[in-house]
Design goal:
This protein is an alpha/beta fold and 297 residues long. The protein contains nine helices and ten strands. A three-stranded parallel sheet has the order 1-2-3, covered by helices on one side. The chain has a three-stranded antiparallel sheet with strand order 4-5-8. Bound molecules: zinc ion (ZN).
């Protein structure tokens, strides 16, 4: 079947396959390094593979220069990844196929609500009525996927049992934006399945997205993955480190110290080492995921 072929490797794997998936909108900071290191050590400590994917769908905000910066930072920090760098901007056919599959199943509808209308109730929800429309609108619209009231439960490796009801997390959500870009939730699910990802280890800011991603996996008949959400890193003002809070780039001046600080954030105790190479040899040996602090949820 064409759809399955485009998704690529759908065989179940006994081996661990993890990934790190930054958006090339700026340099990696201490918070993104925690996610990169945690996901890498989780896979490498069990002789698994670790893939690198650029989430560059939002092309006005993404840039080749930012991607080059991230690759340089990862190399200076001693990361090695398996296979070529995957880019979401090169995988639009697979997202189209997934969208079509959801459409064929009656799971989607066109939403013509404007951003201003949606903002009035402070959510990203449809204002109502769009899902009842019989004919597809000819004008500008986004495409939403329907959710239901059934709770989605999953065992997060670091945060414990989670229960999310997609209807209460914004309801029917956008999978194709009005500006023509595929939304993050759809692309992530399709890409993880195509790469045979068995575990998603990432920052706790994405914990809320997980129920919606599991919903999409189920609708598309994709294999489940294990989730682990790592603690976030905050600056001295108590703000989550991000490009918006102008967090400092890592790996540029003292990569070994940056790595050691990320290990502390991950709850790992490691004796001092003299080089980035020695750090990686030792980090894989001592990695103990039971020491990862659970994030407040
Ligand atoms: Zn609407």
């Amino acid at each position: 079947m064409r759809y399955t072929a485009r998704l690529g490797n759908m065989n179940s794997h006994l081996a661990v396959i993890g990934r790190f998936a930054p958006s090339p909108t700026g340099a990696l900071h201490a918070g993104s390094l925690v996610a990169a290191l945690g996901s890498c050590l989780s896979a490498r400590s069990r002789a698994g593979r670790w893939l690198l994917r650029m989430e560059d769908l939002d092309t006005p905000r993404c840039s080749p220069a930012a991607e080059a910066t991230i690759l340089r930072q990862l190399e200076r920090l001693g990361f090695t990844w398996d296979g070529p760098v995957i880019r979401q901007s090169e995988r639009l056919d697979a997202y189209h196929d997934a969208l079509q599959m959801l459409r064929n199943g009656g799971w989607t509808y066109a939403c013509t609500c404007s951003r201003r209308e949606r903002a009035q109730d402070g959510t990203d929800s449809c204002c109502g009525g769009c899902s009842e429309r019989a004919l597809a609108p000819s004008g500008r619209h986004s495409v939403r996927v329907r959710v239901d009231d059934r709770p989605i439960t999953f065992a997060d490796r670091y945060c414990g049992m989670q229960q999310q009801v997609p209807r209460q997390c914004g309801g029917d959500f956008v999978i194709l934006r009005a500006d023509g870009y595929f939304a993050y939730q759809l692309a992530v699910v399709v890409d993880d399945a195509a790469s045979g990802i068995t575990e998603v280890v990432r920052g706790a800011d994405l914990l809320d997205s997980t129920g919606r991603q599991i919903h999409l996996q189920r609708l598309l008949g994709l294999p489940p993955v294990r989730y682990g959400h790592l603690p976030l890193v905050y600056n001295t003002l108590g703000q989550k480190l991000s490009k918006q809070t102008r967090a400092a780039p890592v790996g540029e001046h003292d990569p070994l110290t940056d790595l050691q600080q990320a290990m502390v954030a991950l709850g790992q105790t490691m004796e001092p080492v003299g080089s980035v190479e020695a750090f990686w040899r030792r980090a894989v040996e001592i990695w103990d995921e039971s020491r990862i602090p659970s994030s407040p949820v």
